[in-house]
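notes to self, project folder thing:

trying the whole complex as one job this time. last attempt i did each chain seperately and stitching them together was a nightmare. two parts in total, labels are on each line so i dont mix them up again. if this works i'll redo the older ones the same way
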Amino acid sequence: NAGVTQTPKFQVLKTGQSMTLQCAQDMNHNSMYWYRQDPGMGLRLIYYSASEGTTDKGEVPNGYNVSRLNKREFSLRLESAAPSQTSVYFCASSDRNGGWEQFFGPGTRLTVL
Amino acid sequence: QKEVEQNSGPLSVPEGAIASLNCTYSDRGSQSFFWYRQYSGKSPELIMFIYSNGDKEDGRFTAQLNKASQYVSLLIRDSQPSDSATYLCAVPSSNDMRFGAGTRLTVKP
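result (full assembly):
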C-alpha cells in the first residue's frame, strides 16, 4: 500500500499562474483533507471532504478550490497564485471525519514568485 | 486565544533525559487528543492518542491528560537523538482536527 500520495513534490509558480495539486489514498478512507503549513503557524486546514461527494471549507479556504473526484482522489486548485500561498501543502485522509487518526502524504513545497 | 497552544521551543535535552512537551486547548468539550511527530522535511505521523484523564504509556512515550485544566502533555523517557523532531498536539474540532504550531525538540548526544 502506498498510503497517501501527492504530486508534485515541488513547484515554482509565478504570480497569477494556476495549478492543481493532486492527492490519492489507497486505504479506502472516507475523509480527506488539505492543509497548509507555514513556519510558526502549524497545520491549517484549507478544505476537507468528509465523504465522497461532499466538500467543506476549513480555516483558510480563500484562493483555493477543491474537487473530490472519487473516494480515492482529492485535488486542490489554485486559480491565480499569490506569493502569500507560498507554503508546504499536505493532503491527509482518515477513516472517518473528526477525531480519528489522519494519515498524511509527503507534502508539496510550493513557491510563488 | 488559539484553540490549541504549544510552546514553540526549541526544547533541548541531553540524551537519556526526559523530554516534557506541553499543550493547552480551549474547547472544554474536547474528548480526544493526539500527538504527532514531524521530522524536518517530512510529514506528520501519529505517535500517541489519549481519551481519558490520567496517563497513557506506550514504550518510552507517556501522554498525560488533565481535562479540568485543559492540559495535555507528552513525556519522552530516555530521549534519543532520533527523537529530535517537531511534536504537534492535535485536538478534534466538530468536523476536522485543530493542530498546535508544534514544539521543536532537540536531543543532544
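what i see at first glance: Chain A touches chain B through 23 residues (CB under 8 Å).
need to look closer tmrw
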